[in-house]
TrEMBL record:
One of its GO terms (molecular function) is glutathione hydrolase activity. It holds the Pfam family G_glu_transpept. It comes from marine metagenome. This is Gamma-glutamyltransferase. InterPro entries: GGT-like_enzyme, GGT_lsub, GGT_peptidase, GGT_ssub_C, Ntn_hydrolases_N. GO terms for biological process: glutathione catabolic process.
Length: 530
């Protein structure tokens, strides 16, 4: 069986591993483990540092989700740290302002601001499974915000994009996140500080989540959004809480793949895996046109169902078990042939017959945390709360205006979420803690990474470096592929009816970064890739 030979080696460890997109954040998480913390402490510390060193992608103004392997109970636990839309939210206000949907930035984006769930999610994870306090794990992030760090090449590129700078310059307070010497985005190698964000993190460190949801931070946030014409109030913030959920899973060739339940899109990956299991993927070769074709078609169906059914299950019924049944997968698989289907594939009836950071940490005792944190688009709405250095997310832009759709805009309701962490267990042992970033790329990345490791026995680094596809689910419906994919495979996919675009350079960011930590249950050896 062919496989992908990565140009980078996986990292091996025994006493703990942290994998994420920024070295400074990974080092902070590892130091927490060295100082006596566990994987959950390390994960929160890493996420907080990412807020400072990769602020366009994540932050306390956004949401988080986590999967935790409870080594004592021997089960995967899901944490929903996403916020709800303001109680006063309604479609009429948006339409009266001249919009047919909620804008995700610039004018009208005040309606896209839902309650940021990150801080409460961090604290909830620490209180239930950590060893350290929020004050202890926030210390590295505060240090970088106050004392500074050098901006890396990739971060400088993202920070300096025209869209990002325009978004932040739209309001005076956006300057708090434009710390470059010339008053704009910082350049590669430039030392920057984020003093306003540092002070905000210090308030949270001293006062816990109450300082965020009930104190000065809440007051300033609500007043700012209301001054912009939005809905968010102090009461909305004060009433926020995270939720522990039962993780959902499917078995793919003897491996249980775990995701958080809706309102996240992780179910799309599980639906696709159920479909792909019916094809002999391993016999096709890792870069064969057959393999890419059947995974693409499986992913299209997974997304068709996710877009139809995923919503806040505490407000509207989501048919999770029927969607994940093998019988349903068998019926849906019959719609897949050797040629491309209509890109606008329809959803099934189970009741009948991008900018994000991901991180994972595993400690020497086998506790694992798969955590994802995001503002949705770069710097979210671009609305920065004055004096707080905090950009607010634009998750509310994913609500539907169709009153018959389960994701219809309503007050106190969580929107459809793109951010999804993942895990895999084998023989009731934690095997993989993994994730892929990038909006609607995320379930597609989970599908491909899981297939790489299960069907082709790739290691953590190979599984991430192997060339990926991305089905465009908004607009064109084209299939994007990385330039490393062979020309023969690209041409054959085109012959089968796929509209394929080959992507290179910085544009490959649309395929998302990713991280994987695998654990050998016999030796405890961790194999990490990023």
């Amino acid at each position: 069986v062919s496989y992908f030979q990565s140009r980078r080696s996986a990292i091996l460890a025994r006493k703990g591993a942290v994998a994420t997109s920024q070295p400074l954040a990974a080092v902070a998480g590892l130091q927490i483990i060295k100082d006596g913390g566990n994987a959950i402490d390390a994960a929160v510390a890493t996420a907080a540092v990412l807020n400072v060193v990769e602020p366009m992608s994540t932050g306390i103004g956004g949401d988080m989700f986590a999967l935790i392997w409870d080594k004592n109970e021997r089960k995967v636990i899901a944490l929903n740290g996403s916020g709800r839309q303001a109680a006063a939210a309604n479609v009429d206000d948006v339409r009266k302002s001249g919009f047919d949907s909620i804008p995700n930035n610039l004018e009208g984006s005040q309606f896209a601001v839902s309650v940021p769930g990150t801080v409460h999610g961090w604290e909830t994870a620490l209180n239930s499974y950590g060893r350290m306090t929020l004050k202890e794990v926030l210390k590295p992030a505060i240090d970088y915000a106050v004392n500074g760090y050098a901006v890396s090449e990739v971060i400088a590129h993202s920070w300096g994009s025209i869209e990002t700078v325009t978004k932040l310059n739209h309001r005076p307070s956006g300057k708090e996140l434009l710390p470059g010497k010339l008053g704009g985005a910082p350049k590669y190698g430039e030392m920057v500080t984020l003093p306003e964000l540092g002070r905000t993190l210090q308030m949270i460190a001293e006062g816990g989540s109450d300082a965020f949801y009930k104190g000065e931070i809440a007051k300033k946030t609500a007043e700012f959004i209301q001054s912009e014409g939005g809905w968010l109030t102090e009461s909305d913030l004060a009433n926020h809480h995270s939720d522990w959920d039962e993780a959902i899973s499917v078995n793919y060739r003897g491996v249980d793949i775990w995701e958080c339940p809706p309102n996240g899109q992780g179910i799309a990956a599980l639906i696709a895996l159920n479909l792909a299991e019916g094809f002999d993927i391993a016999s096709m070769g890792a870069q064969s046109p057959d393999r890419y074709h059947y995974l693409i078609e499986s992913m299209r169906q997974g997304y068709a169902d996710a877009f139809q059914y995923v919503a806040d299950p505490r407000v509207t019924e989501v048919p999770i078990s029927p969607l994940l049944s093998k019988d349903y997968a068998n019926r849906r698989r019959s719609e897949i042939s050797g040629v491309a289907t209509n890109p606008n594939v329809s959803y099934g009836d189970p009741m009948g017959g991008a900018d994000t950071v991901y991180l994972t940490a595993v400690d020497d005792e086998g506790t694992a945390c798969s955590l994802i944190n995001s503002l949705f688009n770069g710097f979210g709405t671009g609305l920065v709360v004055p004096t707080l250095g905090m950009a607010l997310q634009n998750r509310g832009s994913l609500f539907s205006f169709d009153p018959e759709h389960p994701n219809y805009l309503e007050g106190n309701k969580r929107p459809f979420q793109t951010i999804i962490p993942a895990m895999a267990t084998r023989d009731n042992e934690m095997w993989l803690s993994f994730g892929v970033m990038g909006g609607f790329m995320q379930p597609q990345g989970h599908l491909q990474v899981a297939s790489n490791m299960i069907d082709y026995s790739m290691d953590s680094q190979q599984a991430l470096d192997a060339p990926r596809f991305k089905v465009e689910v908004e607009g064109s419906q084209d299939v994007l592929v990385e330039e490393d994919l062979s020309a023969d495979t690209v041409n054959e996919l085109k012959k089968r009816g796929h509209t394929v675009q080959v992507v290179s350079g910085y544009d490959r960011g649309s395929f998302g970064g990713g991280q994987v930590i695998s654990r050998n249950p016999e030796t405890g050896v961790l194999t990490a890739g990023s």
